Known about the structure:
By secondary structure, the chain is an alpha/beta fold. It folds into two domains: 9-201, Rossmann fold (3-Layer(aba) Sandwich), CATH 3.40.50.720; 218-432, Rossmann fold (3-Layer(aba) Sandwich), CATH 3.40.50. Helix content is 38%, strand content 12%. The chain has helices at 18-27, 39-46, 57-66, 99-108, 128-139, 169-175, 185-195, 208-238, 243-250, 273-280, 286-311, 336-348, 376-382, 393-396, and strands spanning 9-12, 32-35, 70-73, 81-84, 117-120, 156-159, 178-182, 203-207, 318-321, 352-355, 372-373, 385-388, 407-410. Strands 3-2-1-4-5-6-7-8 form an eight-stranded mixed sheet, with helices on both faces. It is elongated. The termini are far apart. The mean pLDDT is 95. Bound molecules: ligand SAJ. Ligand SAJ binds at residues 123, 162-166, 218-219, 222, 226, 259-260, 262, 265-267, 269-270, 325-326.
Amino acid sequence: MAFEEKPSVCVMGLGYIGLPTAAVIARSGCHVLGIDVNQHVVDTINRGEIHIEEVDLDGLVQGVVSRKLLRASTTVEPADVFVIAVPTPFDENHAPDISFVLNAANKIAPVLKSGDTVIVESTSPVGTTDKVKELIARERPDLKIPGMTKETPDLAIAYCPERVLPGRILEELVSNDRSIGGITPRCARKALTFYKRFVRGECITTDARSAEMTKLVENAFRDVNIAFANELSIVSDQMELDVWEVIRLANRHPRVNILQPGPGVGGHCIAVDPWFIVHGAPDHTPLIRTAREVNDGKIDHVVRQAEALIEEQPGAKIGLLGLAFKANIDDFRESPAKKVAVSLAKRFGSRTAIVEPYTDTLPKEFEGTGASLVDVDTALLECDILIVLVDHDAFRAIPLAERSDKLVYDTRGIWPDQPATKIDDGRKLRLVG
Ligand code: SAJ
């Protein structure tokens, strides 16, 4: 089959990126096989159902599965294009672990044939795509590998990171611009032809190492800027200033755009990817490293502030609003809100009531703490202290009349009209710091 027509596609990893990517490619008319190590995930998708929450993903998957454009399996089969979208975690020393990417490449290698394209999408340290190339070269000495042959290579190998925002994944998969980094310019062109099938944003070709670094830089940029906001919030609190007011005013400057402080940075990307840069150049990354430390430190700061407020009110019932890593999603991975809530639940036990509209059960970390899961109305009725940890719309919408008699610690700045809460030393605790 001519590659430019309807290539068959194999997507390795059916998680938060792999599944939506597989579904969007299938919608463009390609036959897609999604591979996952988890049999439950495979069975769920083959029923036309999904195992993760993402806006509109259920309908899309159901549609492409019923039209037989998408199916899932635990076993790789031959295809024209392979997309690797598996996790790249880090270890306790913040060293990136690319073993899932290399394992995926290992599984692909035996079925590769001349004309195939292999694309790595997983966020990866610089040099990972070269390692994938070397692995394939070792496993398949019969194939001519790009960058390692003077003849026309049999394969194209490229690195093409996604940059989609959870909650807007299906829209951004299509509308965002993409960096397409080839091992050689020919590889980039082959990958570009593939992405043009379903991406409406501009696709810009480059080399694989630049594309790898670009992805890390994007998330490090955001992390550094959130760290600036988080540091400002602590300083403002100490100076008895309202950080939200200060940021609002500063952002009226035409070249200033300060982000929002919060209880820390969560999710699987921004709190992880900057470490890949630090690990690659430890002696030259004081700013990126410090930003990570400031954002992680903010979690402990919020716990300490909350404890100070709660200790002032013996016996008071405490409502903890939100567990998700950001607003209006059900994703609790690496969530600062969850970390704060678990810490407070362990300390204050049955006095703590958790409100999280995006779950029916408390995560396992709360087992044995005595904390309960309640709805917003119950929290407003029963709790004397409210600690806002996530800026879900459902919390933002609570009118002042229903919370004006509460002691509030608003780490997200969602209730600017809330009267300031003071603790014994007179410091205001409505502020985030
Ligand atoms: N956060 C703040 N203050 C802000 C903005 C965010 O505290 O002003 C916090 C959020 O509450 C959350 C964390 O940062 O805990 C991350 O949220 P996010 O919305 O900034 O980003 P993610 O993790 O959902 O998605 C990011 C995006 N990257 C950038 O914006 C540069 C997305 O485009 C990437 O595709 C994604 O990482 C990824 O997969 O790498």
